[in-house]
């Protein structure tokens, strides 16, 4: 046992030293990695739908004859807030995993608390080490890329593709593998604007890497990407995230979405383009209908009066906001919204209620 502890201590020490070295290199010199995979500037035979940048053979509905499974990975802390969301997320993952048209293979919660918790038997979990104290500079999200680096290096992942998801995602129907031809599949975020911040981003994506439009308006989630591509992207994502946080100008420009920009940059650095798939998810209350979407992302609070009218910015007579449950899990059987509230919000609450009614020992 003593020998094992000594070996673990040496391994962690080496990892921390390696991170520190990479931070220094990333923060003080241009990123000079090679560009494996297809180049965005090179000629290509892929036809692209100009509306959502989806290859045309996919937009015509041809998913291919072979089933290409992806592994769903969700990073989380051991907080009550993250944990209840993960339990609901995994409940719905299991519901749709083996349904027709599903490309959903295995599932892993990447727990970056550094130690197991009591939900290891309920949710398949990989325990990752957090960043060394102080390295995240109060921005806990920086643990996400470091956790992915550890998981990709140490875990035995059977599938050839990865879906990076988040605790506050609810899967509403089976998700097929939306990536193809060396491209990832990612949701485009309106607030990720590489062209607007070109002068800042050129610190991490110099002009010799190509036009700034090579950086897609995405974060790391939801994204389906080839496993081998992600193994190349993840260390760069980690280093760029840390370097961005260390730079006052970048930190001020990007704020809470800094790590999202870092992933977009890392993907571009390695020549991995993305299908911008608008139907990947919805975000209530702004998106009102489920339609063809696969995921509900409940990042925004939903506030309504009893007439079913949105009162965003003001606490409603009826509300659902995940932040109301930062220290305690939501109770079972939450009140349903009043008549007139959009389908997306009604579906969200209904699915939360079904999950909490069926997950054993909820709230304990």
TrEMBL record:
Keyword Membrane assigned: yes
Localization, UniProt: Membrane
Chief subcellular location: membrane
This protein's UniProt keywords: Glycosyltransferase, Membrane, Transferase, Transmembrane, Transmembrane helix
Iron among keywords: no
Organism from which the protein derives: Prunus dulcis (Almond)
Limits of the Hydroxyproline O-arabinosyltransferase-like domain: 70-362
Protein name listed in UniProt: PREDICTED: hydroxyproline O-arabinosyltransferase
PANTHER family named among the record's database cross-references: HYDROXYPROLINE O-ARABINOSYLTRANSFERASE 1 (PTHR31485:SF3), PEPTIDYL SERINE ALPHA-GALACTOSYLTRANSFERASE (PTHR31485)
Residue ranges crossing the lipid bilayer per the database entry: 6-25
One GO CC term, this protein: membrane
Membrane-protein topology: Single-pass membrane protein
Molecular functions (GO terms): glycosyltransferase activity
Annotated Pfam families: HPAT (PF23452)
